[in-house]
Amino acid sequence: MTPTVPSCPRVALIGVSGYARIYLALARAAHDRGEISLSAAVIINPAEEAANEAALRQKGCVIYRDYEEMLRAEAGRLDLCLIPTGIPWHTRMTLAALRAGANVLVEKPLAGSLAEVAAIREVERSSGKFVAVGFQDIYSPVNRWLKQQLCAGAIGPLHTVRFLGLWPRPADYFTRNPWAGRLHAEGTPVLDSPLNNAFAHFVNLSLYFAGTTPETAALAHVESAELLRANAIESFDTSVVLARSAEGIAFWFGATHTCREVREPEIYLEGSAGRVEWQHERSCVLFRADGSREERALPDSTANRLSMFNAVLAKLRAPDTLVCTAALAQSHTAFVEAVHAAAKVQAVPAEFISWEQPATGAAPVPVVNGLEAALCRALAAHSQLRETGFVLAPARTA
């Protein structure tokens, strides 16, 4: 049954600062085009956001200081609630919005634990509303095309999926909010790490590509994990994880923030009759067994976010519209939870770290000596770091 939605859906936004500025821009543009009515917003820092608050009020948007207050006042009158907040608040805000009668677009990851995912999915079912997750790459037309090709057997049954990403991050990346680098915060699991935050999009995309049907993601059972931290955090900032699905697909995930050079996310898919090379914001190349190849340019993150927003708005009227569902995002949460259960985080002693200026020109980054080369060797061999000969060695001195 197609839901009854007004010609101009009423939308609420929780937060306008930080990453929420992206959602604010999307919502304001849709409001100005007459596609939605941005009816309510939560702004908890009015002094810093005076200009945005004034602009929203001018559009007829009611401003609240607390999300619970907003959802109580607007209960039964909202069609969609946007939740571009930090991980600790995803579950509580999603549940509150669903109970207030709104559909939800919540930023990735869906939640910090499988227990929270289960709670969200139960209230989603009982409320009759939907939850879409902000894994923006799932909404890319090229990635949808590739998934269709994989499900149609374009490269035969998958047997290997590998992901690598190197993004330098300075120490203040982990002090930018109260939950960065933490395992728990605000009384809830966070499990913040490269796999659950900066590179979460690509971990989730890897699992999605390996799903056996167009709208499912693979469940990857962790076989081994090497987790390192060079920063003064609870969680890890470097990881190599080997996993396997029930279908026998072997996964390799490598990621770090403690590096000199940027290496944009790469995903490699290998099947019995071909392979795929996927490079973030660059290209997706499908190689078939007969020697033919098909290449498509990948859209950038801005385009993917617009595709995501448009798909969620379309789903208000057309339930069959494809979005990243809570059921699909659950595979990512299950994987992250399993990674933390599989291994303890190893702190890298200071003598094995050099603080260096990254290629990005940002503040100095803690670089683990020999790590970047070892990650590349491990990617090629589908192996653990220690199997490449990587051992913690004294950092270079000037």
Unreliable spans are none
Computed CA radius of gyration, to the nearest angstrom: 21 Å
- CATH-defined architecture of the largest domain: 2-Layer Sandwich
Number of strands: 19
How many domain regions?
A: 2
Q: First CA to last CA: what distance? A: 68 Å
Query: Strand order across the biggest sheet?
Result: 16-15-14-13-7-12-11-10-17
- From the spread of the alpha carbons, the general shape counts as globular
Whole-number average pLDDT? 95
- H/E series: EHEHEHEHEHEHEEEHEEEEEEEHHEEEH
What share of residues is helical? Answer: 25-40%
Biggest sheet descriptor: 9 strands, mixed
Q: CATH homologous superfamily of the largest domain - what is it?
A: Dihydrodipicolinate Reductase, domain 2
Count of helical regions: 10
CATH class of the largest domain: Alpha Beta
Report what the structure shows.
By secondary structure, the protein is α/β, with parallel strands linked by helices. The chain has two domains: 10-134, Rossmann fold, CATH 3.40.50; 138-299 and 326-388, Dihydrodipicolinate Reductase, domain 2. 30% of the residues lie in helices and 26% in strands. It has helices at 20-32, 50-58, 67-74, 87-99, 114-127, 141-151, 200-209, 301-315, 326-342, 371-381; strands at 10-14, 37-42, 62-64, 80-83, 103-107, 131-134, 158-166, 184-185, 188-189, 220-229, 238-245, 250-256, 263-271, 274-279, 283-288, 293-297, 345-347, 353-356, 365-368. It has a nine-stranded mixed beta sheet, sandwiched between helices. A six-stranded parallel beta sheet has the order 3-2-1-4-5-6, sandwiched between helices. Strands 8-9 form a two-stranded antiparallel sheet. A hairpin with a 4-residue loop joins β15 and β16. α4 (87-99) runs parallel beside α5. The chain is globular. The N and C termini lie far apart (68 Å). The mean pLDDT is 95.
